[in-house]
Amino acid sequence: MKKLAIILLALLLALPAYGEEEKTMPSGYVLVSTATQAGWLPLPIEGEQSFPLAQLLPDGTQSLNVIHLTPEGMWMEEASCEGQDCVGQGEVTLENRDERILYNMIICLPNQVVLQLYTPEETMEMLGELPEITGQKEE
Amino acid sequence: MNSTARKVARFGLLASLSLVLGFLDRAIPLTWFLSGAVPGIKLGLANTVLLYAVYLMDWRGCVLLMLAKVFLSGFLFGSMSAILYSLSGGVLSLIVMLLVRKNAKVGALVIGLLALLSDLFLLSRNPAPRGQMLWCVLLIALASIAAFAAFVYIRKNPAFAVLGTSLAGAVAHNVGQILVASTVLRTPQLLYTYLPVLVGIGAVVGCLTGVVAQRVFRALRVETNQP
After folding, report:
1. Domain that holds residue A47
2. Across the A/B interface, how many CB contacts are shorter than 8 Å?
3. ipTM of the modeled complex
């Protein structure tokens, strides 16, 4: 009886921890490529985040792109480029990316920024491991 | 007017025309018509000036005009990135147009066959393409149809050879731009997402600007007949 109680207690203690562990897994990762660097951003577990990407372009001009991340996907919230084509490309999610002409991409040619949305499995395949959750700025 | 003066006048006229048309290109963003789905799509009216140059000037004049167009237009309206993409597109487009100028019919046929082969390759990898891959297959098929239609049309009407040169130049322009963009941004994925879209749209737009160019050549009484 005492043994059973210990097992039940252990299970009760493990359950929330198991749930917690499931919630810490992002549903996708965004690969941000620029002319000078590339990096990964995980989608937030909950809530929404804006990630400002400021760059000094090769011609000396300062550019800014604000990437908006949600638990389901991403969109370009703001860009300093003239055409604003990247802002007009709308939201990319893991659900709608297959139907989009540009698949998982948002492209800002003038500011030399390409965003690509991948599932954790695809990210694992490309990197061999999941990227660390660093460098995110919360609004 | 002596021949040097004529060349200089012609060069100045075409260079200024390319600047004005470049401004017009920016004023008519085709992206709006595609609900923002594809960035950077333009009619390419400024590039048609190079098409005129290919038939009106020697290759040195064409290269000079292309450089003038890229740098003047870039410094006036664009940025360093715009110059980079424009230059890569301009170089490849000019090389292809100079190569097919003498036989535009064959140029259109080669583009059509290349597009058909790449479409068959895509289909063989995806027997029932869905979603984004379906877009790629459809757009490359569109390029292939446009190129074969241009080939048949030029065969029937040798005076419409400009159509083939224009089509080959437009497709090459887009290929050059994407090759450089994918290298600069270290994103080879652009080659199988963005490139098929631009090749498809480029082939259709290239045909349209080719028809306009042919009308202009007829008015200017420039000989563009093909054997």
Report:
1. 27-127
2. 86
3. 0.77
